[in-house]
């Protein structure tokens, strides 16, 4: 199911100079803001929770997920270099699964790790807030990476669609329409975080069981469907 | 012995028919797939390579379906037309990766790099390569698993004459070894120099198939048309029509020129200047009016 060569090609493409800069910029911003907030306001659990929930989990994780998930396959399909993977006796689901593992890994490193660091800077992991949001970021990384990898496989406009989902659906509709919150990776991962932190600082609109079921279903379905789409991927000629 | 069979294959994109009911069999040796730009060559090669499903018909390699059959790539090497190829890798890293994806190692990669004579630049990033170097590294990646069928889409595009010759030698060698090599081209001379057998595709249809010399004769023996201006058009017309190499002449008053149709290309080109000199006529313009590849192809389709 996992091919180390596909993995190597994927992470080297993902961590190419320009993309690595974009991937690194947001986590750096989060950490800088955390240092400034801690310096100005001191250690405060509520502030820590607001910042990690609003900036890290709601904005940074999905954006990193979009970059890593779509970037793991989209550019190769766009420029046609995916032909070098497709012209090999490799099962298509193996290609997708390997790329998913890399995308998840990159999303976790660039979103969950900085969330943990920012949490410790903000309130020294008081009330387990840093760990809870880190767990949420880890869980969300898996779901986002699989969703955006699928988008990268099926659409040439994957980055735009991904950003629309992440920023418009999750951030905007999520705050206005309660129904939208049920169908939000962010809320599902918050349900897991709530379990870790306990208390009222980290809350979710979705129950833990529902959240876990939906996370698993979305991840598995997206990965399976991406494998199917890659099996019948058509490489158009230049004519 | 590897035989690729294309059986009543059509492919359409929406309302556009790109390939129309093509049937052909490609056997060992070098076969040229010839046709003008937009004739459907790439669509056909993509179907042969299993990257595109035929709308109807089947493509099989020694009886095995090509579409949706990953295992077939143990026998197929593909050199795509598109340039993109993991530019951030070095040539060696790229070929090694291709070998690994076939379950092979460094040794196979080195052998393939040696075959295309790219060892000298193997440690440079692909992004620094010239077009010809890229083409050779692509070849190495396609040869790494010693495939019995090699598919190349417009492999000579953008190559300089020396690189072109090197690649031709290499492909000829592959054909001599008994591999089935198919390359597409829209340039007659390329196909003439390399292919033992050609398949001509025009406007999505299979227009001709067979030995190159036979088809080339059809191409050179076709009537050639010339536009000729001279100091005395009518006297020249009278002198030319007396020779059997000329089958018709029209005096185009609007253009102020003669439209000459010649049936024997070699004889006519020798005749024209001689006749003009003998009659004291000055030739002002002699230009072929149907030398475009499309007209050659459309003649072939009609033949």
Automatic annotation (TrEMBL), chain A:
> Membrane-spanning residues where?
20-41, 53-74, 95-122, 128-151, 158-180, 206-226
Q: Which UniProt keywords are present, listed alphabetically?
A: Membrane, Transmembrane, Transmembrane helix
> Key word Transcription present in the record?
no
Pfam families in the cross-refs: ABC2_membrane_2
What PANTHER family does UniProt report for this protein, alphabetically? INTEGRAL MEMBRANE PROTEIN-RELATED, MEMBRANE PROTEIN
- Name of the featured protein: ABC-2 type transport system permease protein
Organism of derivation: Streptomyces pseudovenezuelae
From TrEMBL, chain B:
What range(s) does the ABC transporter domain occupy?
4-228
- The protein's superkingdom reads Bacteria
Q: Which UniProt keywords apply?
A: ATP-binding, Nucleotide-binding, Transport
User: Which InterPro entries does UniProt cross-reference here?
Assistant: AAA+_ATPase, ABC_transporter-like_ATP-bd, ABC_transporter-like_CS, P-loop_NTPase
Molecular function (GO) terms listed? ATP binding
Query: What family classification does the UniProt entry report for this protein?
Result: Belongs to the ABC transporter superfamily.
Q: Note the PANTHER family from the entry.
A: ABC TRANSPORTER RELATED (PTHR43335:SF11), ABC TRANSPORTER, ATP-BINDING PROTEIN (PTHR43335)
Q: What is this protein called?
A: ABC-2 type transport system ATP-binding protein
The organism is: Streptomyces pseudovenezuelae
């Amino acid at each position: 199911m996992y091919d180390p060569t596909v993995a190597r090609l994927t992470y080297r493409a993902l961590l190419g100079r320009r993309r690595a800069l974009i991937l690194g910029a947001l986590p750096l911003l989060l950490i800088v803001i955390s240092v400034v907030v801690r310096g100005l306001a001191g250690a405060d659990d509520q502030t820590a929770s607001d910042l990690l929930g609003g900036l890290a989990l709601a904005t940074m994780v999905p954006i990193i997920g979009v970059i890593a998930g779509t970037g793991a396959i989209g550019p190769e399909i766009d420029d046609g270099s995916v032909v070098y993977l497709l012209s090999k006796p490799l099962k298509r689901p193996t290609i997708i699964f390997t790329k998913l593992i890399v995308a998840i890994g990159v999303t976790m490193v660039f979103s969950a790790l900085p969330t943990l660091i920012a949490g410790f800077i903000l309130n020294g992991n008081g009330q387990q807030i840093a760990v809870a949001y880190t767990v949420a970021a880890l869980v969300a990384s898996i779901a986002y990476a699989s969703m955006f990898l699928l988008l990268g496989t099926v659409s040439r406009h994957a980055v735009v669609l991904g950003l629309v989902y992440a920023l418009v659906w999750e951030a905007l509709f999520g705050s206005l329409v309660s129904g939208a919150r049920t169908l939000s990776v962010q809320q599902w991962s918050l349900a897991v975080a709530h379990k870790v932190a306990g208390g009222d600082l980290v809350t979710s609109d979705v129950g833990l069981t529902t959240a876990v079921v939906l996370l698993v279903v979305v991840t598995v379905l997206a990965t399976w469907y991406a494998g199917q789409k890659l099996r019948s991927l058509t490489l158009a000629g230049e004519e | 012995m590897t035989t690729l069979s294309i059986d009543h294959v059509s492919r359409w994109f929406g309302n556009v028919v790109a390939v129309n009911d093509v049937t052909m069999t490609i056997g060992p040796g070098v076969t040229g797939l010839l046709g003008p730009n937009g004739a459907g060559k790439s669509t056909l090669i993509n179907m042969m390579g299993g990257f595109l499903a035929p709308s109807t018909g089947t493509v099989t390699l020694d009886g095995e379906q090509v579409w949706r059959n990953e295992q077939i790539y143990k026998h197929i090497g593909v050199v795509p037309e598109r340039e993109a190829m993991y530019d951030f890798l070095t040539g060696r890293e790229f070929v090694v990766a291709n070998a690994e994806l076939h379950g092979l190692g460094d040794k196979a990669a080195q052998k393939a790099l040696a075959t295309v004579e790219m060892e000298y630049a193997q440690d440079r990033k692909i992004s620094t390569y010239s077009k010809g170097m890229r083409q050779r590294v692509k070849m190495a990646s396609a040869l790494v698993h010693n495939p019995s069928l090699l598919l190349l889409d417009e492999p000579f595009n953008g190559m300089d004459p020396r690189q072109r010759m090197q690649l031709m030698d290499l492909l000829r060698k592959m054909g001599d070894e008994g591999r089935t090599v198919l390359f597409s081209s829209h340039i007659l001379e390329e196909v003439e120099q390399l292919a033992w057998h050609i398949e001509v595709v025009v406007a999505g249809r299979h227009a001709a198939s067979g030995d190159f010399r036979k088809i080339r004769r059809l191409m050179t023996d076709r009537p050639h048309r010339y536009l000729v201006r001279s100091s005395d058009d009518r006297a020249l017309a009278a002198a030319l029509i007396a020779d059997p190499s000329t089958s018709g002449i029209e005096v185009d008053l609007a253009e102020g020129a003669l439209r000459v149709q010649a049936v024997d290309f070699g004889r006519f080109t020798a005749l024209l200047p001689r006749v003009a000199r003998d009659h004291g006529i000055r030739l002002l313009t002699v230009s072929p009016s149907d030398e475009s590849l499309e007209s050659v192809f459309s003649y072939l389709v009609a033949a």
